[in-house]
Amino acid sequence: MPTKNTIRRHYLIIRRILRNDYPSKHILLEYMKQYDVEVGERTFQRDLAEIRSNFDIEIIYDEKKNGYFAQTDSTLELDKLLYFIGLAESSDIALSTMRDKNRLLQYLAVSPDPRAKGVEHIGWLLRAIQNQTVVRFAHYNYQSKETKEYTVYPYLLKEFEGMWYLFAFVDKLKSFRTFGLDRISNLIITDDVFQREPVLEETAKRFDKVYGLVYEPDNNPTAPIEEVKLRISSSMLPYFQSLPIHASQVIERDIVTLHLIINPELENRIMSYGEHVEVLSPLSLRESIKDRIQKMLSRYK
């Protein structure tokens, strides 16, 4: 049965080789050291052999480029495998199932879309948050199409619509930022520690009080947590019952009550339900939704 350390080593080796830049043995060993994994020559060679036999991935050394590359029959299967190994590394999944990977992978549907990536960072970041450890990484911005290096104090991980995000304080900018885990690369857990300041801790907690990701404490640090009441149609109510839109959600008959900071993403979510949802309170939110409906209606005259 593979041990947790073995799975971690295999995962790191595969993930680093998949950058397709033909890393040398030295680069691979240094990469693992960044994650507090140190191995000798014999263990490294044994890991390569186990990856070949257990996962049907040929790790081949290219003498011309002085580095390794991975060869497999299917890129999608490799994506699924990497996702699965990441789950095993960052969770308490039964390690014995790794031997049954061929049988299990047929039941795992993983999209090649970049949004499906990033789960491998969860375990490392959770440890960093718990241990108050400074982390470094590169983050790609979809809008600017640029990759920037960040050194941050991690405070909170948040899942939203199937994607994971890190809410962290960037000391250089003296402000919080939200980072999509799917766009994080070269994650390094440093040896440096930071102290959680009470003010920053409170700010991070408030991030969990918003729907979605739009939370700008620098622009509106005193945004109130408000009670929102929605009347839901009978046909839509089961969806709210099975998939709450916020952790604070309470349902009584056909009324859904939320306690959160109102933001544009919440308005967009309410609008997406169309005639199935009516905002009862607060009045400011009701009027805002009413105004948007009237503007939308004017386009159909």
From TrEMBL:
* Location of the WCX domain: 226-297
Q: Can you give the residue ranges of the WYL domain?
A: 125-187
User: What InterPro entries does this protein's entry cite?
Assistant: CBASS_pafABC_assoc_protein (IPR051534), WCX_dom (IPR057727), WYL_dom (IPR026881)
* Full protein name: Uncharacterized protein
| Organism this protein belongs to | Odoribacter laneus YIT 12061
